[in-house]
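Structure (tokenized):
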């Protein structure tokens, strides 16, 4: 049986890592191909023994008011052409933009779409892939009912699709991780940690402001692992608060070596699907302070959560755990125990189960 996975790219990111893990699992039993929606990003997750095809990214006129729809339609045609060449039995797509392209293709096969973010939170007053939020709302309502299976990464996303778009045929498959106990420590010690793309969504500005509120009350530093288009803005904020010696932006690096040494992990994200990073931190037996993004309570406890966007509460919770070592350790242990429920093997087996079910429908 031939399976195609269609995703945006295999650069850094949670979706990219999920595709990499699923592809490595499925290639053992199926004839697997990956198609990428763009060819202008690095392939950082290299997968041996799998054919990777890329849709050529065309030159575009960013000033053209219709450029987003033109690029979207171009990718539909290009994906359809590739599907007719490879002739898969099943097509699995990741993320809403690629899901819509998939469901617009004329090629007939079983189609599984993976929904990984809250539509309300992610698209409100934002342009994604040069398309307005209204485009996504309208097209999701029109096309998602054509999917043979909709897989969400959290119950909150599933409930949103049911309540707001009257969709069914939806199941939740949580992300899973491999529990990594063989970790080399970083050269740093005595710090609080954040890991993530440097983006408004991830709330690093709030974290720096919260840290500034408590900087004179703690002796720890703040390390942020990741890169992105907000790097210069974050560095400017660090300089404005005279935190150059206390806040380090270290770029992309192996997250585990930082997790192992951190005192506390802080996750001030405004919206998520289901965070692999949080699972990785939990599996290393570290405590977490997080914003109350939609779906946070499916993985964290109330003691880990503060109101969304409340910098004062964020700083107070960080300070509380830094000053109460016993509580910090106890919460770390509770989170570690909970992380044992989210194994990669369970996630991959659930995907295989859905693939096999579609084969007999």
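Design, position by position:
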């Amino acid at each position: 049986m031939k399976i195609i996975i269609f995703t945006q790219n295999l650069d850094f990111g949670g979706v990219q890592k999920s595709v990499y893990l699923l592809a490595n699992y499925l290639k053992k039993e199926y004839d697997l191909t990956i198609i990428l929606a763009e060819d202008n990003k690095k392939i950082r997750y290299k997968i041996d023994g799998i054919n990777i095809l890329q849709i050529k990214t065309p030159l575009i006129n960013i000033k053209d008011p219709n450029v987003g729809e033109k690029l979207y339609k171009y990718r539909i045609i290009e994906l359809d052409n590739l599907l007719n060449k490879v002739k898969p039995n099943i097509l699995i797509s990741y993320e809403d933009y690629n899901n819509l392209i998939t469901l617009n293709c004329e090629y007939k096969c079983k189609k599984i779409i993976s929904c990984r973010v809250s539509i309300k939170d992610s698209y409100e007053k934002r342009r994604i892939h040069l398309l307005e939020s209204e485009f996504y709302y309208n097209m999701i309502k029109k096309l998602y009912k054509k999917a043979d299976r909709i897989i969400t990464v959290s119950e909150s996303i599933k409930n949103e699709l049911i309540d707001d778009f009257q969709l069914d045929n939806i199941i939740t498959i949580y992300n899973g991780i491999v529990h990594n106990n063989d970790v080399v420590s970083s050269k740093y010690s005595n710090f609080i940690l954040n890991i993530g793309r440097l983006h408004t969504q991830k709330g690093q500005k709030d974290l720096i402001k919260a840290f500034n509120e408590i900087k004179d009350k703690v002796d720890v530093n703040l390390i942020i692992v990741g890169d992105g288009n907000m790097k210069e803005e974050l560095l400017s904020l660090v300089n404005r608060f005279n935190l150059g010696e206390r806040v380090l932006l270290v770029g992309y690096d192996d997250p585990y070596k930082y997790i192992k040494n951190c005192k506390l992990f802080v996750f001030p994200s405004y919206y998520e699907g289901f965070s692999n990073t949080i699972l990785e931190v939990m599996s290393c037996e570290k405590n977490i302070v997080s914003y109350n993004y939609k779906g946070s309570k499916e993985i964290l406890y109330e003691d880990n959560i503060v109101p969304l966007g409340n910098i004062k509460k964020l700083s107070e919770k960080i300070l509380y755990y830094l000053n109460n070592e016993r509580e910090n350790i106890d919460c770390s242990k509770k989170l570690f125990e909970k992380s044992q429920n989210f194994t990669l093997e369970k996630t991959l087996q659930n995907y295989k189960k859905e693939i096999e079910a579609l084969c007999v429908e």
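Reviewer-requested clarification: DSSP finds 13 helices and 13 strands in the chain. The chain has two domains: 2-175+343-359, 191-339.
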